Amino acid sequence: MSETLDIRPGAYFSNGAYGRSWGVRLVTSIETDPASGATMLTFKGMAGVCRRKAGHCPLAAFAEWARHEVALNENSWQRVGSASDD
Fold it and tell me: What is the 3-state secondary structure (H, E, C) of 11-29?
């Protein structure tokens, strides 16, 4: 049941955690670091533990953190492409 996420700028992702560990981040950019050649990602925390925080990390580290692509629906974050068609 391994899902490959299309991590891209402008998309929101959640770590799928419960309680105080849960978070949603907006990917703001993905660039190659000229010094190391590593693909780096910049994000903005939108909800949960990372709200109002910004950061950057290697794309691979973000991919390990992210469990689901999500979208804001009214006042709740819901998985993109989930089985429910409400």
Answer: CEEECCCCHHHCEEEEEEE
